[in-house]
Amino acid sequence: MNLGELAANLLQKQRSTPDLIADALREAIIQGIFAEEQSLRQDEIAKQFGVSRIPVREALRQLEAEGLVKFYNNRGAVVSGLSPSEAQEICEIRIVLESMAIKFAIPNLEEVDIEKAQSILDATVRETNIAMLGKLNWEFHSTLYAPGKRSRLLNMINNLHISTERYVRLQMTRMNYLERSQKEHYLLLDACRNKNTSTAVKLLKRHINSAGKELIAYLEKTV
């Protein structure tokens, strides 16, 4: 799939043009259609979508806020890369924010939330599309966090997941990573089902830290 096909699919949805363009560009970056440090020429993107440069610029600013795009005075917008130190920082922030999110959520978790999270994990076992695995990973975590009713906190966590999703997809293809991640997810779900907040926080911290170490090791080999 290329950017034109992503654009055609997303433009069928009833959303604002900048949001639709941002969705297509985000997916193109996550899928690796655009490489790290690749220039994102606004005129070329506008031509692909059949729009002016104004909604393209707004879309790129959205992606800048998510950490996927950087602006340079002499180059314009480029796809952001991720250094090992940045990955470490993201991991540290995730541990703090997601620990808060699960603490807020567990008292409000209902059986329907547990069942939804369970169905997501079951779907993950059957899924073979790497792109869908990243989405299912976020759906699982957000399902457990949403009952905490902290929308700004959830948005902050989502942005951190977006910043690393393209790398997480690579990790998913590595031997045993997905299997280990799934085991950790099931343990976390059991702790949430039993309303055991301290165990859930401990498991979540270990899960994020483990994934972070994998990501940092990968980035250290590629820089």
Automatic annotation (TrEMBL):
- Presence of keyword Transcription regulation: yes
Q: What domain of life does the UniProt record list for this protein's source?
A: Bacteria
Q: Where is the HTH gntR-type domain?
A: 15-82
GO molecular-function terms, A-Z? DNA binding; DNA-binding transcription factor activity
Keywords, A to Z, come to:
DNA-binding, Transcription, Transcription regulation
Matches recorded under SMART domains: FCD (SM00895), HTH_GNTR (SM00345)
Protein name according to UniProt: GntR family transcriptional regulator
Q: Which organism is it from?
A: Mastigocoleus testarum BC008
The opening ranks of the lineage are: Bacteria, Bacillati, Cyanobacteriota, Cyanophyceae, Nostocales
